[in-house]
Write a structure and sequence with these properties.
Elements: H1 12-21, H2 25-80, H3 84-156, H4 164-223
Helix pairs in contact: 1-2, 2-3
Length: 224
C-alpha cells in the first residue's frame, strides 16, 4: 500500500491514451509535469518526516538495549556480592527494557520498511518526470514543425507554380488590350489627318475656280 496519496489526475498509465486524443499534447504534458512535481515535493516532505521518525525509533531501541545490558551487568554484580534482592530489582528493570526493545523494534522495522517504500516511489516519480519531460521536448518540436508548416502553407496559398500560366495569360490579355487601344487611337488620328487633308484640297480647288472666274469677268469688262 502506498504511504502517500497520489494526487495526479494524469498518470503514466493513461498519459499515452490521453495524448492521442489531445489537440494540444504539450499542454497536457505540462499539466502532467506540474502534478508530478507537486507529488514529488509532497513525497520528499513525507520522506523527511519518516526519516526523522525512524531515527527516533532506532534511538529508543538502542537506548533500551543499552539499559537492558547495563541492568544485566548490575544484576551480575549484585549476585556476586550476595545481594540477591538488588539483583532481582535490576533484573526486573531489565525485563521492562527488554519489553521496550520488542515494542520499539517492531515500530522501527515497520517505519524502516515504509521509508524504503517511499524512497522507491520517489525514485519512480523522478524517473517518470524525466521520461515525460523528454517526451515534452519531442512533442514541442513536432508542434513547432506543424505550426511553421501551416504558416508556410498559408503564405503559399494562391501562389503555387500551377497559377503562373494563368497569371501570364491575364497579363497578356491586359497588355493586348492596351496595345489595341493605342492602335485604335493612332488610326483615328491618321484618319482625321486624311480627312483634313482632303477637305483642304477641296477648298483649294474651289478657290482656284473662283479666282479663274473673277479673272474671266475682268477680261470681259475690259473688252467692252
Amino acid at each position: 500500500m502506498s504511504v502517500f496519496r497520489r494526487v495526479r489526475d494524469i498518470t503514466v498509465a493513461n498519459l499515452n491514451e490521453r495524448l492521442e486524443q489531445s489537440q494540444d499534447p504539450v499542454r497536457l504534458i505540462d499539466q502532467f509535469l506540474i502534478e508530478t512535481r507537486q507529488e514529488i515535493m509532497e513525497a520528499e516532505k513525507l520522506h523527511h518526516q519518516y526519516s526523522g521518525h525512524t531515527k527516533q525509533l532506532k534511538s529508543q531501541v538502542d537506548q533500551a538495549r543499552a539499559m537492558s545490558s547495563k541492568r544485566e551487568e548490575q544484576a551480575l554484580l549484585a549476585v556476586k556480592a550476595g545481594e540477591d534482592h538488588l539483583a532481582k530489582l535490576a533484573l526486573q528493570e531489565k525485563m521492562l527494557y527488554d519489553e521496550k526493545i520488542d515494542q520499539y523494534s517492531g515500530l522501527y522495522a515497520q517505519s524502516l520498511e515504509s521509508l524504503q517504500e517511499l524512497e522507491n516511489q520517489l525514485h519512480e516519480l523522478k524517473t517518470e518526470y524525466q521520461t515525460v519531460y523528454s517526451k515534452r521536448q519531442y512533442y514541442y518540436a513536432r508542434m513547432e514543425t506543424l505550426r511553421l508548416q501551416q504558416r508556410m502553407n498559408q503564405r503559399m496559398n494562391g501562389y503555387g507554380a500551377q497559377d503562373v500560366p494563368k497569371m501570364f495569360h491575364r497579363l497578356e490579355d491586359q497588355v493586348s488590350g492596351m496595345e489595341w487601344e493605342a492602335r485604335s487611337l493612332r488610326d483615328l488620328r491618321k484618319a482625321g489627318q486624311d480627312i483634313a487633308s482632303q477637305v483642304g484640297s477641296t477648298i483649294q480647288s474651289t478657290l482656284d475656280e473662283e479666282l479663274s472666274r473673277l479673272k474671266q469677268k475682268l477680261n470681259k469688262a475690259g473688252e467692252e
